[in-house]
Design goal:
- By secondary structure, the protein is mainly α.
- The protein has one domain.
- The protein is 77% helix and 3% strand.
- A two-stranded antiparallel sheet has the order 1-2.
- Helix 1 runs parallel beside helix 3, helix 5 packs across helix 8 and helix 6 packs across helix 8.
- It is elongated and about 85 Å long.
- It starts with a helix and ends with a helix.
- The relative contact order is 0.13.
Length: 256
């Protein structure tokens, strides 16, 4: 009886350690709970709670019996790398909003107006900060963060415990995620690119007709006003388009 209890406790602790290594690493970097404005102790509590909850679900993927100490340390390191990989993929697709915001700010004449972006914990554009915060609110309001948690569970089928992750495949997935994220950001900013192109064409024609007028000094306030008006009309469409693409990306990459 004592040996069975000891075996159960050792196996349970071992399963929890490996689960916490992967889930904790993913939670630390994934959007929302892993952002800089989330206190470190809150992130730790979330990671511990998810690990305790999901450990029974992933127990079937845990090696049995418990390996030696050196092998255990190697397993923990590999689980940590896989968790960082999945959190990074989700973070890359959140960065599409920041990319779109930077392009929109540049096309609107607000490229030099920088504010603190809480999503990336760095200085960013005004529109990028607005889109990033709004996108995070939408992710939690639509409960889309559940896809991230389901993806972590599904990652045990893609990256089984004990197997060495294929660095080439992981690099290929990251490259594909970065390119897709940039395309999404470019698509989100297309209305403003077209608006700016039309403005520049009009300024070029006006400069040829009346060379003595300081075209850029007169047109910049108009460009900013038109950009804000365009943002007012297309803001909801931009966020709906992004949340659809974000969901598709999470389902594709995480198998949700």
């Amino acid at each position: 009886m004592t040996s069975l209890l000891e075996e159960y406790l050792v196996g349970g602790v071992f399963a929890f350690m490996l689960t916490f290594a992967r889930i904790g690493a993913a939670v630390t970097i994934m959007p929302g709970v892993g952002d800089s404005f989330t206190p470190a102790n809150i992130r730790l509590y979330i990671a511990l709670g998810l690990s305790l909850t999901l450990a029974p679900l992933v127990a079937q993927h845990i090696p049995n019996p418990v390996p030696p100490t050196s092998v255990l340390f190697t397993l923990i390191v590999m689980e940590f790398i896989v968790g960082l990989f999945f959190g990074t993929i989700a973070r890359i697709f959140m960065a599409a909003l920041d990319t779109a915001g930077m392009i929109i700010s540049t096309m609107s004449g607000l490229g030099n107006a920088q504010v603190f972006n809480p999503g990336s914990a760095t200085q960013g554009s005004l529109i990028g900060a607005l889109l990033s915060v709004t996108g995070m609110v939408i992710v939690f309001a639509t409960e889309m963060h559940h896809l991230l948690f389901l993806g972590i569970i599904g990652s045990y089928d893609l990256f089984p415990v004990g197997s060495i992750p294929d660095a080439g495949s992981m690099a290929e997935l990251v490259t594909k995620a970065v390119s897709s994220s940039f395309v999404i950001g470019l698509q989100l900013s297309l209305p403003f690119i077209l608006m700016s192109l039309m403005m520049y064409i009009g300024m070029g024609v006006l400069a040829r007709l009346m060379p003595q007028i300081q075209v850029f000094m007169l047109a910049l306030p108009l460009q900013i006003m038109i950009a804000f008006a365009t943002l007012m009309f297309v803001f909801s469409a931009i966020m709906l388009f992004w949340v659809t693409k974000f969901e598709e990306a999470m389902i594709f990459f995480f198998g949700g």
